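Exam review. A common question shows you a sequence with its structure tokens and asks you to describe the fold in words. Practice with the pair below. Do the first one on your own.
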Amino acid sequence: MSGDTNDRRERTWFNTALPWLVLVVGLTLAFVGWWQLRLRVERNDQARFDRLSERVTSRFKRAFKRLLSQCRGANASFASQPKVPQEEWRNYYRTIGPYLSPGIVGLGYIARIPRTGLPALEEQMRQEGIPGYQVEPDARASGPM
């Protein structure tokens, strides 16, 4: 009889422990699988982010190189003659306009002119075809505009 009791105790322990063992092994395998999947997803996401970052960076670099080239062309125009007539600047802009980056709205030049030179500037602009051209200086400012 005591042999039957020991067998029952062993079977009862085995019957009780087996489900827990299966549960622990199953949870461990599920966790390991989840962890591996998570690492793979992170690697894929990082690789995708790196590709997109490189693409955006290269687009910005190309756009800035194009803009720099356009600015150097304008600079060369002013280096060849310090005072570029308005019509010549307009022609230059029309020539390069189609090649400007989409984000560029305009390209201009602003000269620093002493207040004493304003009447001469106004007269020059009127002669270049802008009737009624008038500078409206800030009364509080002093020195060049």
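Now try the second one, then compare your answer with the model answer below.
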Amino acid sequence: MNGCARLIASRPASTDNAGDRIGWGMVRQSLLSGASRGGDEPIDAALRPLRLKDMVGQAAVVDKLNIAMAAAKKRGEPLEHILLDGPPGLGKTTLANVIAREMTEKPPRITSGPSLAKQADLMALLTSLEQGDVLFIDEVHRLPRIVEEFLYPAMEDFRVDLRLRAVSAVASSTSLCGGLP
């Protein structure tokens, strides 16, 4: 018997009261579910491409991105805003990592739409960015509308308008305008 057949045929030897083998169903279910097992992360990271030339598939998208990134580098500017759309597992996060590493040599700042519940969450994230940083918002379609509206001026004008309200006997409000890198 070769090593592969031996591995597939091996099962835990202990049994429960009904005579079933303990753990075999759980191991089999874990293998079939595709769920991450402990220790898979370093292997996954090692297999993900870091450069555009290493990307497999999505040839039309990769070609267009290559042209856009080359033009931005030639102009000495950051890459314009990009919306990556598609079903789960298509490689949007991997592509965001590749774009960030190609443009800045740093990984992107990654967050998700549902984690940005209020304007202050987005403000904290935006003000921590440095010139040329790549921000990847996974599930951007799930941003609350108030946060979405707050993001537009940051993307278009590279500034944010934040309204602060002071709670006192006489209510007042102050509007602050801050520039982004």
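Model answer, second protein: Strands lie at 109-112, 135-138, 159-166, 172-179. Residues 1-22, 171-177 have pLDDT under 50 and may be disordered. Full marks require stating both points clearly.
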